[in-house]
User: Which sequence fits this backbone?
């Protein structure tokens, strides 16, 4: 043990991660600077503070801070760090930094060459690239003398110049000399523009691309447009809005249009830039791409409501959008394509000829001679073309590894990084002084890299977990257990053989079998959560053939009510709620969580194999390439919705005040806790800060597990949940929008109907166009129709019903289906062991892996992409497949134990969510293992387990613990806690069962399944009540479950709080419950409805009413003494109500409600709802 503890302590020393091109730090460097600061320490610092703006998905200023190479490469302002003489990359970075001071224009040109070389070699490995010509339908080079500027090189559709003044030329984007007065068109913003005519005619279902080189002024001005301004701005618009490049595709502005623009990239430097947008014909904003200088921009979507067409007879224009917005600046090389260009084709358009020539020259040299000398020649290339070579070399000699020269440190020290004004929006905190010092120390030492592979499971002997640790019963695969032989020939169910064996050891036998009516009521509540109707009970009692109870169980399992009952058990375990919860009082709603709830209910009803059920919930997004699917099938939809399992933990990061890295890590920790307790039956959360004190789960294994989920839950690349304030975040939103085949079919059908009806109106309007005044004849169609509705009574009578029909059809369109899902976003940031759980104190990096105690120490945890060419990591899919291995030590054991607990009141392992060493030992270990293996052998069928358990004699025992003489039974004396299952437990209804059954007996239960949760009313007195739905109330599983706003009815009867989940409900018996049933207005209302039902079904005779009320409420008729007591009580209540109403009438308050007999029956029914026979299940 001491050696293991020694290793754990050494594991916490500063260490390293996974970067490319690693070299060992020389000993003299380490000695020179004292305690080592490596690239991994610096990377962890930058990940915490900088990668929201300079990470994978956002790179402001073209700067990435993800790794050492990115720091050396820098962004638009030059390298982020400057080092002393070293590698080729370092020398190149230093050289570019020096040139920035001497020749900005040359620096900009040369700085793109290395990147361009790399991209060209990757995109065009076999030949010389040429700008795309396929699909090119218009090309305005805007070169040459003024007379040639308007020529279209692809067709005869030349442009026509309009506006005050004459054509003006300027240096083009390929010119390095502003004195050259040819090559590009200059527009002065006063009305000058080009009319390009009908060079192309695109509809909203057709793809196309528009591009240009621009050097704009800081104002609003069109680049390329085809806009019909009088007709609701219908058309296509590519505009520079003070540096922000915007795309508008419009049928009717703004209600039926697409508008997108880059989230962060702006053109404000008055330099040449290449801009391009493409549209794929999908009718969605997601089908629009914008590229700035060949790099695709992350887009912000302003409008995504285009359902019509943007086709217009207006001409294409260059430099004009509308009468008050003209482009000011230079413009060159305008192109229009009848297709979407590839990234490689866009790159070529965005590279000027001089750069292309230089890059190709470099590639040719590399092909001819790939030697060290050639590498040096590439470095020399940067200086040979300079007229000031000697001066620059001299300047380079003075460059030293001075941290103050590094841009990143200057920005941090000046307070510009991270921006103080944007800390809340980015969920970032300022760097601590120690972090700045460590960054400075690293740069001063030459930004050293240390080669130390990340620790990976299954590759070396594990000093933290050994075979003794794996010897604990729960960490061993379930063994093959023979069914015990029993001398009692009546024992046919294997469960009974195991239980009888333990009972015999305790000197006990099974209790007697319960009465058929008791057994049926028990089965109905266990599988449906509702009592049987009188007809259903009679059907069972009349079935005197063998196997009657088995047939009843089969009918119950086949009912849709089964999924609602057992889905609720699973929703408890995963922590289902319709709100996010979290750290603030604001408890924002989860608007689409109910789709996951419905998925769970459907899965139970269809008896989805448990292994598939788990795989879908852990990695449904990695089961199919949904992003490139031709259609969204029901299977794809289910797989994506299923991942809601991993979104159920409380998450308040939608609020800026609690969206920092520490808050995100709390969300991840809660979700890991849900996964481990639900699926593995282990508590791992304490290993977040230290090795587990009781189970062999080192802190390393906690972070291995966290790394598996990091492809979707990356605290350094966070997606905020849906909800919260409307502030703009740097984060994306963790939500998917999908269109199912059914929705698409319905939408297409409605489009046909709407078009047919609208066509009739349009035809009639056009017929009447000649009759309108001369000036009105040219009105656009929509305005013409509006004019005729006001001025023409005949047209109004004809068109109004049709337009009303169009409006009704539009309202029937299926809404966009948003789902709250989890999806993999590609390779995430590295995962470090956080010393004492402190994210500011990262230690050793780890690779994804599972707890070592549950795996073979010599088998690595294998992760593969889910399909060929996938960008997803495949980490969670690997975890899911590991979890559902048939011989997994815990998965099948945990689930069969959970099923057993819900049937028998306690699990074979009483600590249902903790199979570790602090949990309880199984009372029947052999039975548990036999059930676990049988579960797998029966195809992981949960319904098969129900049948097996419920058809056992163990299940069919009475619950009584009293002898006929009134004393404690032998079972009660020898097995007081019922650990040996010598009887069935007497169970009180859970909260949902109390409410649902009260609604059911009152005939007020609406059995409509699925859909958004039913609303509640939060009263001023604090009570939370359900609002009725179509004259009744739906089952409690469909009632809104807000974490901080429990329905009072349910919370009174121990509805659990999801913090983050509930593996095992607790039960209390307090006076408040009795007071609620006696005094609550809803219960009183339901008692009245119960009385109406009884009177309707039994008439007005007292004895028949008592019998019927008992049959409905208790699923049995009254015993003789109950019948007599009920008859007497009801007679007394009738007299009371008759006298009371007579007194009220004499006082001038006549009865306006139910008659005395009904009120008496309601009072009696109210008493039944307060009885133990109603609340408890035998």
Assistant:
């Amino acid at each position: 043990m001491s050696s293991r503890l020694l290793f754990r302590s050494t594991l916490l020393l500063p260490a390293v991660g996974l970067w490319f091109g690693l070299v060992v730090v020389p000993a003299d460097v380490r000695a020179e600077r004292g305690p080592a600061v490596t690239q991994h320490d610096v990377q962890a610092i930058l990940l915490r503070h900088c990668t929201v703006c300079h990470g994978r998905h956002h790179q402001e200023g073209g700067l990435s801070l993800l790794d050492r190479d990115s720091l050396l490469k820098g962004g638009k302002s030059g390298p982020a760090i400057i080092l002393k003489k070293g590698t080729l990359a370092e020398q190149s970075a230093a050289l570019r930094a020096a040139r920035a001071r001497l020749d900005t224009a040359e620096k900009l040109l040369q700085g793109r060459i290395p990147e361009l070389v790399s991209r060209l070699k990757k995109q065009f490995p076999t030949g010389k690239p040429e700008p795309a010509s396929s699909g090119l339908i218009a090309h305005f080079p805007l070169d040459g003398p003024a007379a040639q500027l308007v020529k279209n090189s692809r067709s005869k559709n030349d442009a026509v110049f309009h506006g005050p003044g004459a054509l003006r030329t300027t240096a083009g984007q390929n010119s390095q000399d502003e004195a050259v007065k040819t090559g590009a068109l200059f527009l002065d913003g006063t009305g000058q523009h080009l009319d390009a005519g009908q060079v192309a005619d695109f509809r909203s279902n057709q793809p196309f691309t528009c591009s240009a080189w621009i050097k704009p002024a800081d104002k609003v001005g069109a680049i390329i447009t085809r806009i019909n301004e009088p007709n609701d701005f219908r058309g296509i618009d590519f505009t520079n809005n003070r540096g922000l490049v915007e795309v508008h595709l419009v049928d009717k502005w703004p209600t039926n249009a697409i508008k997108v623009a880059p989230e962060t990239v702006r053109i404000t430097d008055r330099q040449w830039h290449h801009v391009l947008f493409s549209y794929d014909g999908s009718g969605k904003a997601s089908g629009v791409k914008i590229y700035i200088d060949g790099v695709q921009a992350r887009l912000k979507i302003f409008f995504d409501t285009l359902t019509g067409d943007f086709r217009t007879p207006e001409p294409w224009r260059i430099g004009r959008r509308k009468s008050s917005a003209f482009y000011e600046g230079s413009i060159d090389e305008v192109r229009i394509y009848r297709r979407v260009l590839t990234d490689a084709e866009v790159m070529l358009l965005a590279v000027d000829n001089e750069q292309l020539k230089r890059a190709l020259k470099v590639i040719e040299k590399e092909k001819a001679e790939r030697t060290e000398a050639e590498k040096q020649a590439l470095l020399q290339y940067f200086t040979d073309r300079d007229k000031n070579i000697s001066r620059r070399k001299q300047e380079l000699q003075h460059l030293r590894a001075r941290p103050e020269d590094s841009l990143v440190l200057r920005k941090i020290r000046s307070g510009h990084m991270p921006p103080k004004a944007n800390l809340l929006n980015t969920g970032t905190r300022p760097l601590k002084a120690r972090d700045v010092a460590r960054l400075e120390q690293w740069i001063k030492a030459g930004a050293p890299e240390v080669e130390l592979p990340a620790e990976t499971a299954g590759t070396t002997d594990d000093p933290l977990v050994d075979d003794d640790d794996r010897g604990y019963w729960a960490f061993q695969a379930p063994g093959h257990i023979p069914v015990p032989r029993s001398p009692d020939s009546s024992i046919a169910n294997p469960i009974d053989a195991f239980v009888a064996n333990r009972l015999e050891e305790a000197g006990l036998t099974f209790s007697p079998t319960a009465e058929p009516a008791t057994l049926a009521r028990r089965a109905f509540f266990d599988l449906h959560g509702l009592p049987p109707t009188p007809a259903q009970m009679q059907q069972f009692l009349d079935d005197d053939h063998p196997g009657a109870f088995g047939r009843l169980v089969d009918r119950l399992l086949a009912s849709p009510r089964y999924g609602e009952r057992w889905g609720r058990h699973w929703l408890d375990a995963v922590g289902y709620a319709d709100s996010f919860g979290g750290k603030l009082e604001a408890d924002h709603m989860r608007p689409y969580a109910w789709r996951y709830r419905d998925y769970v209910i459907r899965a139970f009803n269809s008896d989805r194999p448990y292994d598939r059920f788990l795989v879908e919930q852990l990695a449904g997004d990695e089961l199919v390439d949904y992003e490139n699917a031709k259609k969204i099938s029901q299977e794809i939809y289910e797989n994506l919705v299923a991942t809601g399992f991993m979104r159920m933990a409380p998450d308040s990061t939608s609020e800026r005040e609690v969206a920092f890295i520490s808050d995100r890590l709390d969300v991840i920790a809660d979700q890991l806790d849900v996964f481990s307790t639900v699926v593995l039956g282990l508590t791992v959360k304490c290993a977040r800060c230290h090795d587990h004190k009781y189970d062999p789960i080192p802190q390393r294994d906690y972070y291995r597990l966290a790394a598996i989920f990091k492809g979707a839950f990356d605290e350094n690349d966070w997606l905020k949940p849906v909800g919260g304030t409307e502030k703009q975040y740097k984060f994306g939103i963790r939500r998917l929008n999908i269109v199912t085949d059914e929705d698409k079919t319905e939408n297409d059908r409605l489009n046909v109907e709407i078009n047919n009806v609208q066509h009739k109106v349009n035809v009639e309007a056009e017929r009447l166009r000649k009759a309108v005044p001369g000036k009105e004849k040219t009105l656009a169609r929509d305005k013409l129709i509006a004019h005729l509705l006001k001025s023409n009574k005949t047209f109004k009578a004809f068109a109004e019903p049709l337009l009303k029909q169009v409006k009704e059809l539009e309202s029937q369109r299926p809404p966009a289906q948003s789902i709250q899902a989890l999806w993999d976003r590609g390779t995430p940031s590295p995962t470090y062991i956080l010393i004492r759980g402190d994210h500011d104190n990262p230690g050793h990096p780890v690779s994804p892996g599972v707890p070592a105690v549950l795996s073979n120490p010599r088998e690595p945890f294998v992760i593969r992409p889910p399909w060929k060419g996938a960008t997803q990591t495949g980490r969670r899919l690997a975890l899911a497949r590991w979890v559902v291995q048939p011989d997994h030590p815990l998965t099948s054991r945990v689930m069969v134990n959970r099923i057993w607990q819900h049937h028998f009141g306690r699990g074979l392992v009483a600590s249902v969510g903790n199979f570790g060493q602090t949990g309880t030992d199984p009372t029947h270990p052999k039975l548990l293992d036999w059930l676990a293996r049988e579960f797998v052998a029966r195809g992981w069928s949960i319904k098969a387990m129900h049948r097996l358990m419920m058809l056992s004699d163990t299940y069919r025992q009475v619950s009584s613990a009293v002898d006929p003489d009134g004393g404690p039974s032998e079972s009660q004396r020898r097995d007081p806690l019922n650990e040996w299952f010598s009887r069935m437990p007497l169970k009180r209804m859970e909260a949902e069962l109390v409410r649902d059954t009260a609604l059911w007996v009152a005939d007020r239960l609406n059995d409509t399944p699925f859909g958004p949760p039913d609303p509640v009313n939060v009263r001023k007195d604090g009570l939370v009540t359900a609002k009725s739905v179509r004259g009744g109330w739906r089952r409690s599983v469909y009632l809104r479950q807000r974490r901080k706003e429990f329905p009072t009815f349910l919370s009174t009867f121990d509805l659990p709080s999801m913090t983050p989940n509930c593996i095992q409900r607790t039960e209390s018996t307090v006076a408040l419950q009795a007071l609620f049933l006696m005094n609550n207005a809803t219960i009183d209302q339901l008692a009245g409805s119960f009385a109406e039902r009884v009177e309707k079904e039994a008439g007005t005779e007292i004895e028949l009413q008592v019998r019927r009320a008992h049959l409905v409420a208790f699923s049995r008729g009254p015993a003789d003494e109950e019948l007599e007591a009920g008859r007497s009580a009801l007679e007394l209540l009738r007299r009371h109500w008759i006298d009371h109403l007579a007194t009220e009438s004499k006082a001038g308050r006549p009865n306006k409600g139910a008659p005395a007999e009904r009120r008496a029956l309601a009072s009696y029914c109210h008493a039944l709802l307060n009885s133990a026979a109603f609340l408890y299940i035998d």
